[in-house]
Design goal:
The first copy, chain A, is built from nine helices and 13 strands. The first copy, chain A, has 305 residues and is an alpha/beta fold. Chain A folds into two domains: 3-112 and 291-302, Nucleotidyltransferase, domain 5; 125-284, Nucleotidyltransferase, domain 5 (2-Layer Sandwich), CATH 3.30.420. Chain A has a five-stranded mixed beta sheet, sandwiched between helices. A five-stranded mixed beta sheet of chain A has the order 11-10-9-12-13, sandwiched between helices. In chain A, a hairpin with a 5-residue loop joins strand 2 (12-18) and strand 3 (24-31). In chain A, helix 5 (185-196) packs across helix 7 (218-242).
Chain lengths: 305, 305
C-alpha cells in the first residue's frame, strides 16, 4: 500500500506518494506562503493528493504523514509555528478527514527525518538511535524501542536547544549557549569569522567554509574541529540519556565530510562515558537530501502505537 | 500479592517484603562485603527471603526486584560493579531460579528509585518524569510512557555523567566536568571550600554546609545557589530530551530545603526552553529515605514490558 508524505515548510509544501519500499512515485508542491487560512490550504493539498493518486490509478492509501515545524503528534495539530503565514493552532487531522478518512499523523520535521531513516534508510533494523539534523537550525529526533520519543507535551527531542555553553552565544529561542548557536550553518560561519578575526557576514556560507577546509585552509579546518568538538560533546551527553545504538547525522553542513567527521569521531570518543564505549556508532543519513522530508513524513504512518 | 525488594550496596544487602500498597511488612539484611562468590551470597539472600515469607505465613510472592550498581535490566545480571567484593558478571536471575521460580528483575539503584516513586510515591499517575538522586554520586532514572528507559545497552539514564563544564572538575569516571562533580555531596563541599578559599577537606560534610546555609551563612548560601544553578541547567537540558511532566529530586543534599530549592526553581525556569514553560514541575521524592531503595527494587516487578 502507498502513503502520502507532506513536508510543510515556510515557503513551500511538498507532497509525495511513497511506495512500501520508500520509492517516491509522484510529487507535487504548493506555495505555503500564499495561504493565510487553513481551509483553502488543506483543500489545495487534498486536490494535489487526489491527482497524485489518480495519475497512478490508485483508489486507496495507507494514510497521510506530515512533517511540520511545531507539528504535534498527540493532537494532530501544528501549534503556532512562527515561520508559517497561517497562524494559530491548525488542526490538520480534522480538516483532512473532511476529504479522506485515513490516518493523519503529524510530527516535527526532525522527528520525521529520524523515523524516515528507520523505515526507509540506514537505521532499518535499529530501534534505539538519535538523529541530529544540521541546517538553518539544529534539530533532533529520538527513537527508543522503535518509537519516536514525543514526551508528555509532544515536544520532546529538541537537543539543538540543549545549553552547551552557559551564557554563551545568544539563540533565536531567547536564551544563550544552545547547541544550535554553534553547530547550525550560521553558527559554523560565526565560528569561522571569529577565528579569522573578521565581523560575521551573512554572505559567508557554511558550504564556503567547507570548501575552504577541503582545500586545506587552516582557519576553515580549525572551524570544523571546533564544531566537531562541540557536536561530539553534545552527542556523548545524549548517550547518557538513552544509550542509543547509533547517532545519525544529516543536513547541509555534514556534506563537508572528513574535516567534520574525523574530529567528530575523536571528540565523541573522548567525551563518551566509559560504560558506553563501543556501543554507539556515528553514522550518516542514507536518505537523499531532496527525499528525506517526504519519506520521513510518509514513514510516520508506520509508527508503533 | 507481595513482592521482595532487594537493595544491593557495597556494604550491606537490604531486603524487604512489600505489600501491594507499598508497605514494608518485614525487613532483613546481610553484609555484602562478607562475600566473594555469588553462590553462597544468593543462598543466604534466599534464606532471608524464605524466613521473611514464613514469618508472615506466606507461600507465594509476585517476584523479586533488585536495585544494584550496574544492574542490567536486559540480562538480569550485575555487570562488573566496581564497589562489590563479588567480581565479574553476576547472573542473579539464574542463581535465584534454583530456589524459587518467580520473576527476577534487576536495574540500577537510581532507576529503581524512579520506578518506586511511580508505583508507591509522588509520581503515581505520571508516566513521563525524571528522577535525580543526589548523594555520594548523582544518579538518574528516566520514565517515559510509564516505562523505565534502559536504552540499547541497559545502561541508559546516567545524567550524573552529563558533561556540564567541558574540561571542568575531574570525575571518578575518568573524564572532566560531569554534573556529579558539582552536585554530589562531595561536589557541594568542594564548591563551599572553593568559595571559602580553603583546601577541600573530607571532614566537611554537605549536611554541615546545609546547616550553615539555614543559619544564614553567606558563603554556604552562595554554595547552594551555585549548586542550584548547575542542577537547574542540567534539569532544563534533560527536558529537551523527553519533555517530562515532572523532575523529582531525592537524596541527602536535598534535605537542606529552601537554600537549594528556591534558587533551583529560578535557575530551572531561566534555563528552560520556552516551549516547555509551565509543563514540567520540580518535585521532591515522597518516599522515606530508609525505604526508597527497597520499595524501588520491589516496584521493578510491576514494570510494563
Amino acid at each position: 500500500m502507498y502513503s502520502i508524505g507532506i513536508d510543510i515548510g515556510g515557503t513551500n509544501t511538498d507532497m509525495g506518494l511513497v511506495s512500501e519500499d520508500g520509492t517516491i512515485v509522484g510529487r507535487s508542491s504548493i506555495p505555503t506562503s500564499a495561504y493565510t487560512e487553513l481551509t483553502p490550504y488543506v483543500r489545495d493539498i487534498m486536490a494535489c493528493i487526489d491527482k497524485l493518486m489518480k495519475d497512478k490509478g490508485m483508489a486507496e492509501i495507507d494514510g497521510i504523514g506530515i512533517g511540520a515545524p511545531n507539528g504535534n503528534y498527540y493532537t494532530g495539530c501544528v501549534d503556532n509555528a512562527p515561520n508559517l503565514t497561517i497562524k494559530g493552532v491548525l488542526n490538520f487531522e480534522e480538516e483532512m478527514h473532511k476529504y479522506m478518512n485515513v490516518p493523519v499523523v503529524l510530527s516535527n520535521d526532525a522527528n520525521a527525518a529520524a523515523y524516515g531513516e528507520m523505515v526507509y534508510g540506514g537505521a532499518k533494523g535499529l530501534d534505539n538511535f538519535i538523529m541530529f539534523t544540521l541546517g538553518t537550525g539544529v534539530g533532533s529526533g529520538i527513537v527508543l524501542d522503535g518509537k519516536l520519543v514525543h514526551g508528555s507535551t509532544g515536544g520532546a527531542g529538541e537537543l539543538g536547544h540543549n545549553i552547551l555553553v552557559p551564557n554563551g552565544r545568544p539563540c533565536s529561542c531567547g536564551r544563550r549557549g544552545c547547541l544550535e548557536t554553534y553547530t547550525s550553518a550560521r553558527g559554523i560561519v560565526r565560528t569561522y569569522c571569529e577565528l579569522k578575526g573578521i565581523p560575521y557576514s551573512a554572505d559567508i556560507k557554511s558550504k564556503m567554509v567547507g570548501d575552504l577546509a577541503n582545500q586545506g585552509d587552516p582557519i576553515a579546518l580549525k572551524t570544523w574541529e571546533t564544531v566537531a568538538d562541540q557536536l561530539g560533546l553534545a552527542m556523548a551527553n545524549s548517550v547518557t540519556f538513552s544509550a542509543p545504538q547509533a547517532i545519525f547525522l544529516m543536513g547541509g553542513p555534514t556534506k563537508v565530510g572528513e574535516p567534520l567527521l574525523k574530529p567528530l569521531q575523536k571528540a565523541f570518543e573522548k567525551y563518551l562515558l566509559n560504560i558506553y564505549a563501543g556501543s554507539c556508532q556515528i553514522r550518516m543519513s542514507e536518505l537523499k537530501a531532496n527525499e528525506v522530508a517526504i519519506l520521513g513524513a510518509a514513514a510516520l504512518i508506520k509508527m508503533k502505537k
